[in-house]
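Session log. Operator J.P. requested a structure for one protein chain; no other inputs attached. Running the standard single-chain path with token output.
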Amino acid sequence: MELGAVVDAGPARSLKSVSVAEFAARHREGLNRIALDIQKVGNFDSTTMAILDELGWYHDHEITAPSLLLWSGGIEEFSPQLENAESVQRMLRAGSDLQLTRLLHALVGAAVFRNETMESPAPRIVDTVRNAANLLRIDPNDAARLTFRMWRTAFLPSILMPSTPASVTRRKLYRKLALELEDLLN
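Structure written below.
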């Protein structure tokens, strides 16, 4: 939400003037679609989904350079220069890549562990990543392909290697879903 709000506000706006609530209001339809897709992929009930509202991500709160630093995985050095435009833009780019990859990882994990009813969650997962990328003003198709490639190299090997604690069945499900995602994105 914070990354999207800052990207949506544009590089000329100071962080103090960026409103998460205004961003959420302008993009309510897209955010609702993402939440619905997450609910379906993870087979979550409405009580679980209510946590999104309880966390307050849609409500106004101050966006700071240190919070962008956290979302971006510490790409910048913590310093008084953290709020300069170049640092903020770098944090937005790195944070977008990192958060989209984590979103994909969470969606695949939810599908593998929780969804026994959906024929194939892969198309919905791709749509969710595309919709999230759109909120970050990134080309949705390019972002989905690149996010998949980052996820495939950063997260998937730690699940698929025989030495991991994942069961053979879980590894098969991850492989199957990874292949379906790759087919959709190529």
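Operator note: The two ends are 29 Å apart (CA to CA).
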